[in-house]
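Structure representation.

___
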Amino acid sequence: MSVLNRNVWTVTRAGARGLVAAMAMTGIRTVTANVGLVGQSPPEAIVDRHAPAGIQRLPQQHRTALTELAHWSYGATGGVVFGMLPPRMRAYPGIGPVYGLAIWASFEAGIAPLLGVQRAKQTRTLSRALIAADHVLYGIVVAGRLAPEPQVIARKHRSRSPSWIAGHCEQ
């Protein structure tokens, strides 16, 4: 496999993991919001404040669906960006949680104030801790720690892997 193809594969897989990770975050937020631990999520706050009038007039369930689709797109984009990090950096065991927390911190410190969404001052400590935790989960999933890259698996189990997998991963 050429370096370019390997890079495209790495970035594509990271983008897919970002999408799945954002979906997992939605599940966590649904549970924590329904039991009263987390109030309005950052994506909801952004849509409530900045969505065009046409979106604001939609029924709540449609607005919620669009908010989630936007969050999933953002998650996939974050995955793509992770996939473009240097391989040595992506290989660091703690990079996933650090990356997830960096995304959250950049939102809190940069994006939220720019958009006038002052979440840091309005949310409880427990709510913020839960949002930080789901960003750690995001980072773990994006980094592939739950589903390692095929070449990592092949290196660990080369003697037990079918020859076509080991050969594919060595190139």
In short: The radius of gyration is 19 Å. Residues 164-171 have pLDDT under 50 and may be disordered.
